[in-house]
Fold:
Amino acid sequence: MEPKEISRRNFIRVSGLASAALCLGVYFPASAKEEVIVSKAAADARGIEMNAWLQIDTDGKVTITDHRAEMGQGSFQSVPQIVAEELEVDLKDVNVIFAQGNPKKYGSQITGGSSTIRGSYKQLLHLSATARTVLIMAAANKWAVPVSECYAESGNVIHKPSGKKFHYGELVVDASKLEAPKEIQLKKISEYKLIRKPLNRRDTPIKTNGEAIFGLDKRLPGMLYAVVERNPRMRGTLKSFDSTAALKVPGVKKVFKVQMKVYDTTRDGVVIVATSTWAAMQGRKALHVVWDDSGFEHVNTIDIVKRQEELLKTSEGISFKTQGDPDGVLKQSSNTIDVIYQTPYQAHSAMEPLNCIAHYQPDKIEVWGPIQAPDWIQGNLSDEFKIPKENVVVNMTFLGGGFGRKAFLDYPYEATLISKEIGAPVQVVWSREDDTTQGPFRPGIAYRCQGAIANGEISAIKFRVAGQNLDHWQGGKRDKPNSSTDEGFVKPYFNSIKNISFSDINFELPIPPMWWRSVYASTHGFGYESFMNEMAALAGKDQLDFRREYLKDERCQKLIDRMEEVSGWKSRKKNEGYGVAITECFNTTVGQIVKVSRHTDGKVKIDQVWAVMDCGWYVNPDIIRAQVEGSVLMALGAATIHEITFKDGLPEQRNFYNYLMPRMSDMPPVEVHIMENTADAGGVGEPGLPPFSPALTDAIYDLTGNRIRKLPFDMNKV
Amino acid sequence: MISLNVNGKQHQIDADPNMPLLWAIRDILGLTGTKYGCGAAQCGACTVHMNGEAVRSCVTKLNRAAGQQIVTIEGLSANNNHPLQLAWNELNVPQCGYCQSGQLMSAAVLLRENLNPTDQDIDDAMSGNICRCGTYQRIRAAIHKAAHIQQEAAKI
Structure:
């Protein structure tokens, strides 16, 4: 994804930007494979609007328009850290504003797939270096000296022989008239002063004094508040409602039906609009609703699990990938295992419940909220309300967690419907119960894993997967296997396992399914890597050596060496359990080793987690460490503490009193190591999650001899 | 009219005495640093101080808060310089940041009562505050750090 061509003419002549003299735009294709576009002409040719991604005004003030959300993953820090490095300015002098949703301007803006850095860093480096280069050229011209005698530092261009100096603000007007050279010199990694440094996050101060504005904190003049009672079976409809009592609650203004479209489904609800959140919540309590949700009462977790198990025994599924002849080898083998792994449904449970402010006007829609997918929302609102995209303004606030749930369309759409009906700006607040029970959920998935060992080597592996496909309710084809069937599986395995197959068994349910931090890898990783540990045991081999044998590429070998070294693998003691797993997703491979032991109270505790991440090129090691620490805790909760179960079509968990969360005392010590190399950047926000649960259950096996094949399990009972 | 003292400022507000303090602080006084997380005293995102004690404002009715001294995150320090805030910044504790007001308010009571808390003290005092991003390891380290900052400051 090296930029192929930089159009050099006119790249800064953007009209309508009053104070910004030097202004560069950049476009982020969803695939991140196309060129950087910094020119107005090139932008016009592609039918996209020139954006002012990087601006430097005549005072030398640098402003970047971050096209991605900040939901804790650190884009607010890592993006400017990249820019300041190549632009040669002090990090504190770079201002960051959030872009509004506009794919015509910015390309893909969805904060998902751990893509913020890996999807844009090459463009950002190039863009910033381009700006630095023309600023140096402008200075050299002014002084009438060779460019080679000048360099940039801290927002100044300096003439080395004389020590003369211009600050960037003095150069922007001249620089904007120049044509950038064809070859832009980027810095070497060894020259970095900011990138790869654990610099403090710039959003920390406002997140420690209450100043940061999250979606729920946004206020508009004349804004009303609303809550919605939605069909508890998610896909049922509204039969009738009685608002008499609700309307008597002081502050309640209006009660009416709201129906939100989600793909090929609709979600029915009754909205209570009031002068405060509390009044709306009180009105909701007084509301009487009759639902028609017949046909959905048969959804029960116990049946879902049973049906998955049956299908895994009776169905071959649709082939996703077959290498060699695993079926043939399995038939002829004597040393085999055939086991089923199971994972549960999960809610996202970001600490900030879903919410959105919408202001509908006949010719314009504006929304504000904790939003991961501003570009997608803009398109959806434009289509649904028949308002041109340019009149649909989508504003991102800080997100109080996202984990995928806030990369969706439903909540801004519903808020806009409500604003349209009442003719005023409105903030729609989801209660914790709404957030927990309404989905969409991370699906629970079951895996049948068969394998054969001959002469201590893997001779065949066969994986079958039964779980909901996230694409299906978006119109995905049923006759094709899930395109992410092997997500989480470390790709170099395919080079050394001769006979291996993956197949996907179609599994339909009326439960709305959705991506959840690390998507399918969050559950596939448990099935596939747990099974590799079982295969190692069957082969009579050390789990880490077994990985070393089958993950032969250089990066994996180094990763395994590092795991061995940091965990003291070779000096582990008999009364301690050590577990291993390695998974790959979003171009990043992470290996984890978990150590457990039985404490004096008789309970097994996690003493230490070592995580080694190979994410290639990276920006801020401290942010990466934080992401991995958090990923481990989120995985721990999903493996040992919480699950969403369904009974008679209803989610049984409603709030943190029965959808329990890990607490301070549950946090194991996590030590994170980052591999140093110059490979293309991979994701960091999600890949730390999938290896944890298989490494933990492997450690428990190592200590107790019990294989745990079903999540979640109770740590107090192992 | 209910008389409410928040961060040393006196307010007269016209609201249902059964309204939780959380919504009065956020929707009426416009202090949005205190967060709604669960509405059921389960997560601690709404933690404020009432007469110096940590309370969950989502279940504290206005009539109980009336006339008491309430402190929110906005009033924890004059300039983001409480030892905990300094430590939080130094160790880059927050990720999404949503729960951190509540974490800080809970930790502030701990640190006032216990000048040198152990890991067990921290577990006990902080177990009512959920962080979904998983910043617990850093919160623990930052509380130890803040205790140190506080002790150093006391020597001067």
